[in-house]
## 1
Amino acid sequence: MNANTTTPSAASAMATAERVLPQSAPAVALRDVRKVHGQGDAAVVALDGISVALSPGSFTAIMGPSGSGKSTFLHVAAGLDRPTSGTVTLGDTDLARLSERRLTILRRERIGFVFQAFNLMPSLTVTQNIALPLRLDGRRPRRSEVREVAARVGLEKRLRHRPSQLSGGQQQRVAIARALVTQPEVVFADEPTGALDTQTGRGVLALLREVVDGDGHTVVMVTHDPQAAAYADRVILLADGRLAGMLDAPSADQVAEQLAHLGS
């Protein structure tokens, strides 16, 4: 599969992003987003004028050197943190217009999260961990919907197990099932294979790929691993808080080359 590779300078990258915006409403869009931590002489610019749109049903990997703004990008895009300026939209919803309460409800109902450390409740079974977002939303989970999503990630025979009785890969699959049980519009994954061995990580990445191809979810993943990024439709490269380039249909070698160019 041939890749269309762009490596624009930081100054021209935003213009490139605007040219490739999809015609339909994006699943997630950042418009001239700036995020500054601290004030005065201690201020650190984590994101500096990011404009990008992510298509529904796409798999995007966010990459860049240490300190490039990857985690901040994910947190702002997912509504976990508010930008200093600029706008972030989920579908047709402007997150800046929401109160903290409404933003919490939106995250619970329309967004799924997968983290490197799994973040499972050790005292709960697989069934209870998967159902937790529904219970936090005040809904009584149906056994059938929990079983269905557990089967989707290959855990239908582990429903009564607790996290300590599972392998790392199985725990991450529980985390993915938990993220999918609310049928979110977007799943945000922060280094989802970072705590896994190579083979187990590939299984998790294949599952995320199937979440996009089979279920039509949008997945946004932060990763440092070029092999992981090769599962995505597009890689967005950040450097010093700015958009530094994009790779469409990326290969691991192309990603590694561009990361080396950025000085990672």
Note: The first helix runs from residue 10 to 19.
## 2
Amino acid sequence: MKGYAQFCPIAKAAEVLTERWTLLVLRDLLYGSHRFNNLRRGVPLMSPTLLSKRLQTLEQAGLVARKPGEGNGHWEYHLTDAGEALRPIVNAIGHWGQTWVRSKLTPDELDPGRLMWAMHRHFRLANVPHGTLVLYVEVTDTTRLPTWWFVVKRDTVELCWDDPGCDVDLSLHADLLTLTQIYIGDLSLPRARALGKVKIHGAKDLVGGMLSRFPRSKFADDNPCPIP
């Protein structure tokens, strides 16, 4: 990217941060993705070549450090202090976007893989019962990747598109638009269930506690209008 030929610190920051995809790569690094393939899952429309290029740019700018992964033979990407200092800035952009430039949820924005990957990063682990909770999700109106499993523990969430072979504690069935609306805060889970848009099966106490566990965007509460 060509520079702005200005000494202004805003211009200097823009030279690093405003290239296409860069903020989304930073978003995923801030969410805890360190491996190249996990970063790709967060930005699946970005080519591997371009992702490599953006990571190199961030490394050269001192925002990212590339380190060998522990025992896996793969490189990992970790934010430096300078990169971590962007956390409140990226969060502020997200809060601003949720309030002022809301998505109309066009068909090209609805994708089961991207939604499930986002959901798996936002489970409220403090509210998960002791042991392992297995949530099965069926996206009822798609033939592409319609079934997913979340294996939720006290400190980790594993997302599977193949049956992991665990007993299912909760199953949830809904169309893609409804699930996306719940995740971004446009629709509450109880309201969606009352309207018959979501069906939940499982033990009564687990179904009752789903509201406190269901993953929602960290910006979901920023909606300018109360959700139904």
Note: The chain has two domains: 9-100, 107-222.
